[in-house]
């Protein structure tokens, strides 16, 4: 079920974040250790986002390919020539019924945000339409721009649960505080997770979000580990080496990480709707 990784710290070579360590993200594509019955390998493409500063504005660039990561020479020949202080990468195992195409590969980006989803939302078209309708109703006064109109889901880059989740999360992030406000991200993730679980209780929702300065992630069913020092912060579906400082994140957690800071908060079990 997909593997993802986020890094913030001193500048690194973008390609290195995909190939670093004996159990790199690229290795996790064909030999993942902890898929929890969510598929076997992650051969349906990959993507990587990195942050750069241009005219005092921080923006995200990305590279994606729907082919298996181990077949793409750009990983060795191009991506190591790019440098950034923040990187977010993902390898994909397409959920049954979802297209295998470049636009379905995480990371999904907007402004200074990059996002990846490891998991699945069962019956996502109905569930996420219901979530959008719920948000639109609850936030009517904030919704002057129709941010949560269910038709906005048509803006999803690809017909997948993950791309539709990004439409909803992007709208939440844009709702009440400007992009980049750190208070907005955890609140938006909590809100999204609980609404999706209300409508699709069996969802698997490991979300990973970055703004170039900080990373936020949820662990909901799938594996997640953190390696945070005073200098850098990494969140990864699986540790990519045997550094003893890797910490396994407990299931049902919300994580905030930046260099010198790791916070892990439990996520409440959302109430299941009456049957
Ligand atoms: N459901 C998402 C997709 O198909 C994520 C898949 C995964 O985590 N394996 O892209």
Given the structure, what is the number of helices?
6
> How are the strands ordered across the major sheet?
3-2-4-1-10-9-11
What class do helices, strands and sheet pairing give?
A: alpha+beta
Biggest sheet details: 7 strands, antiparallel
Summed over residues and divided by their number, the pLDDT gives a mean of 92
Fraction in beta strands: 25-35%
Helix content range: 10-25%
Report the strand count.
13
Identify low-pLDDT runs: none
N-to-C CA distance: 29 Å
- The string of secondary-structure elements, in order, is EHHEEHEEEHHHEEEEEEE
Rounded Rg = 17 Å
Named once each, the bound ligands are:
glutamine
* Global morphology: globular
Layout of strands and helices, then pairs:
Blueprint (H helix, E strand, L loop, with lengths): L2 E11 L2 H4 L5 H6 L15 E9 L2 E9 L8 H4 L5 E9 L16 E3 L2 E8 L3 H15 L22 H15 L8 H16 L4 E7 L4 E5 L5 E4 L4 E4 L10 E2 L4 E6 L2 E6 L9
Antiparallel strand pairs: 1-4, 1-10, 2-3, 2-4, 5-6, 6-7, 7-8, 8-12, 9-10, 9-11, 12-13
Helix pairs in contact: 4-5, 4-6, 5-6
Bound molecules: glutamine.
The site of glutamine (GLN) has 17 residues, from strand 6 and helix 5.
Description:
The chain has six helices and 13 strands. It has helices at 16-19, 25-30, 74-77, 124-138, 161-175, 184-199, and strands spanning 3-13, 46-54, 57-65, 83-91, 108-110, 113-120, 204-210, 215-219, 225-228, 233-236, 247-248, 253-258, 261-266. The strands form two sheets. A seven-stranded antiparallel beta sheet has the order 3-2-4-1-10-9-11. A six-stranded antiparallel beta sheet has the order 5-6-7-8-12-13, covered by helices on one side. A hairpin with a 2-residue loop joins strand 2 and strand 3 (57-65). Helix 4 packs parallel to helix 5 and helix 5 crosses helix 6 (184-199). It binds glutamine. Glutamine binds next to strand 6 and helix 5.
């Amino acid at each position: 079920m997909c593997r993802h990784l986020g890094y913030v710290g001193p500048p690194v070579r973008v390609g290195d974040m995909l190939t670093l360590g004996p159990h790199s993200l690229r290795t996790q594509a064909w030999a993942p250790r902890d898929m929890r019955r969510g598929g076997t390998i992650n051969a349906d493409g990959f993507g990587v986002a990195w942050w750069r500063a241009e005219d005092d504005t921080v923006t995200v660039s990305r590279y994606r390919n729907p082919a298996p990561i181990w077949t793409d020479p750009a990983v060795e020949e191009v991506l190591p020539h790019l440098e950034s202080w923040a990187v977010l990468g993902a390898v994909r195992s397409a959920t049954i019924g979802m297209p295998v195409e470049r636009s379905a590969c995480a990371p999904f980006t907007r402004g200074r945000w990059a996002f990846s989803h490891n998991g699945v939302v069962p019956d996502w078209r109905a569930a996420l339409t219901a979530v959008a309708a719920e948000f639109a109703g609850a936030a009517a006064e904030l919704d002057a721009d129709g941010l949560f109109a269910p038709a906005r889901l048509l803006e999803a880059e690809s017909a997948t649960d993950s791309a539709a989740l990004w439409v909803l999360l992007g709208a939440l992030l844009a709702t009440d505080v400007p992009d980049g406000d750190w208070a907005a991200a955890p609140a938006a993730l909590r809100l999204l997770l609980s609404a999706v679980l209300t409508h699709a209780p069996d969802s698997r929702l490991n979300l990973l979000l970055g703004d170039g300065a900080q990373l936020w992630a949820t662990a909901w069913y799938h594996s997640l580990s953190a390696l945070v020092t005073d200098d850098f912060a990494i969140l990864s579906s699986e540790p990519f080496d045997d550094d003893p400082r890797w910490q396994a994140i407990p299931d049902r957690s919300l994580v905030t990480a930046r260099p010198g800071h790791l916070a892990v908060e439990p996520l409440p079990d959302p109430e299941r709707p009456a049957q």
